[in-house]
Design goal:
Length: 188
């Protein structure tokens, strides 16, 4: 009888410990390597996925260079087996090589679940090249984000140029008419 009670207690403890699940996390790609120019922005995407059997809240953030990096969304919920595409926008502020990590953390929705703060780090290497002029870097960054305004600006410059050329041609014709000597004067 004591033996049966011990077996029942053993299996009940075994089932109790078996029900404690930890949330799991994964991400692709596992490494990011970007080349930028000062003032330029670049966008990349990562895929964060929940590899556990329970829902969780996920956070993505840079460990450093927070003023350079924008993450959308940076906080979201994933059900078991779901994934989410996260957009990372890096805006280079100064030249040089930088190596940082993007942190991806997960926490279970159920506070009773076993959790040791699972997370992972995605290495991000930045190679930022200096441009000859900060003004040109700023202009190129603005143009890369607003290409439609760039096209409108070019068209406006072309139209103004054509207008100025026509005005100069008219002035030349008027000058020739005013300077030309009369035809019936004797040359002598």
């Amino acid at each position: 009888m004591k033996f049966k009670i011990l077996i029942i207690l053993f299996f009940s403890f075994l089932f109790c410990f078996n029900s404690a699940l930890a949330i799991g996390i994964g991400a692709k790609p596992s490494f990011l390597d970007l080349e930028l120019k000062v003032g330029q922005s670049k966008e990349v995407k990562i895929l964060v996925y929940n590899i556990s059997q329970e829902a969780g809240i996920f956070q993505v953030f840079p460990d450093e260079l927070k003023e350079w990096i924008k993450i959308e969304p940076n906080n979201f919920r994933l059900e078991a087996g779901e994934n989410k595409e996260v957009k990372i926008t890096v805006s280079a502020k100064e030249g040089g090589g930088k190596a940082i990590n993007l942190s991806v953390l997960a926490s279970p929705l159920d506070r009773r679940s076993f959790s040791v703060g699972p997370g992972l780090k995605i290495p991000l290497r930045l190679n930022v090249k200096e441009e000859g002029s900060i003004f040109l870097a700023s202009v190129s960054a603005a143009l890369s984000q607003n290409w439609s305004w760039f096209v409108i600006g070019i068209l406006a410059i072309l139209l103004i140029g054509l207008f100025l050329i026509k005005c100069l041609e008219r002035q030349k014709k008027r000058r020739k008419k005013n300077i030309a000597p009369p035809e019936n004067l004797p040359i002598g």
